[in-house]
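FORM 12-B: Structure-to-Sequence Request
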């Protein structure tokens, strides 16, 4: 496992994220709220949680929870939390309930959940084990925790190394498939029920190969996300999308896709 040491105080305390507005740029919002944006996450999620109370940790502008509400109305009761207050304002404006309280300060006896999600969040955490422990405490017996993180041994990282745009100062933890499972297995009341590798963006590899090792500006990342999101929704590109999906599945089968995911289920009391 690779991790930051020392961790800058503003990242350890979370204050780094409170004033950031990248998630509110028009390109980012348009992409995040597009129907195809969370298609992979939703497939994984729906395999294990068909309804109930859902808490999205690091929900940003609330786009994942918005999709749950729109696609399956009256099936899920959703709640989001994040450190970025401006992003939470936008989530509320789209009808997504939020709680403006640090996740580790949640009152365990106040509410239990059928699902807790960490989509691209754990890599940002100074104390990831405490967050996973809190998730386990907040889950109902049989409830599931969903996690997705960048893959340290993805094809992109192997080709680009430090030039890869997701090797960035605010990513404090980098997991391989093995270390991700070891991390999750340390939480004794949660059992891994599914894991894998998903997502692949060849345009990122192309752009980062041509670029330098400096951080890719947020606006540039948002523009690329908007462009690829639009392509996914273009009907005449169906043959290209089918080929792309096949490549992504092939990479995922050998843990070379861009991200790793795990689904953990809370064991019943005494199990």
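FORM 12-B RESPONSE
SEQUENCE OUT:
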């Amino acid at each position: 496992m690779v991790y930051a040491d020392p961790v800058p105080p503003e990242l350890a305390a979370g204050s780094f994220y409170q004033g950031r507005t990248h998630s509110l740029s028009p390109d980012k919002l348009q992409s995040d709220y597009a129907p195809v944006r969370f298609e992979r996450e939703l497939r994984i999620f729906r395999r294990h949680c068909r309804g109930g109370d859902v808490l999205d940790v690091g929900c940003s502008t609330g786009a994942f929870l918005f999709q749950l509400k729109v696609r399956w109305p009256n099936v899920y009761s959703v709640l989001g939390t994040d450190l970025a207050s401006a992003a939470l304002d936008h989530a509320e404006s789209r009808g997504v309930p939020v709680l403006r309280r640090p996740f580790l300060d949640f009152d365990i006896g106040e509410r239990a959940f059928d699902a807790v999600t960490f989509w691209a969040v754990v890599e940002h955490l100074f104390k990831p084990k405490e967050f996973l422990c809190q998730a386990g405490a907040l889950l109902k017996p049989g409830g599931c925790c969903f996690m997705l993180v960048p893959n340290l041994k993805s094809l992109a990282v192997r080709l680009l190394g430090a030039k890869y745009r997701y090797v960035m100062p605010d990513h404090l933890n980098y997991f391989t498939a093995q270390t991700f499972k070891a991390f999750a297995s340390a939480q004794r009341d949660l059992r891994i029920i599914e894991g894998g590798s998903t997502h692949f963006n060849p345009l990122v590899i192309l752009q980062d190969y041509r670029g330098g090792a400096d951080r890719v500006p947020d606006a540039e990342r948002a523009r690329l996300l908007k462009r690829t999101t639009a392509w996914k929704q273009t009907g005449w590109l169906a043959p290209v999308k089918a080929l792309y999906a096949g490549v992504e599945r092939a990479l995922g089968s050998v843990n070379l896709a861009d991200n790793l995911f795990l689904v953990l289920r809370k064991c019943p009391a005494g199990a």
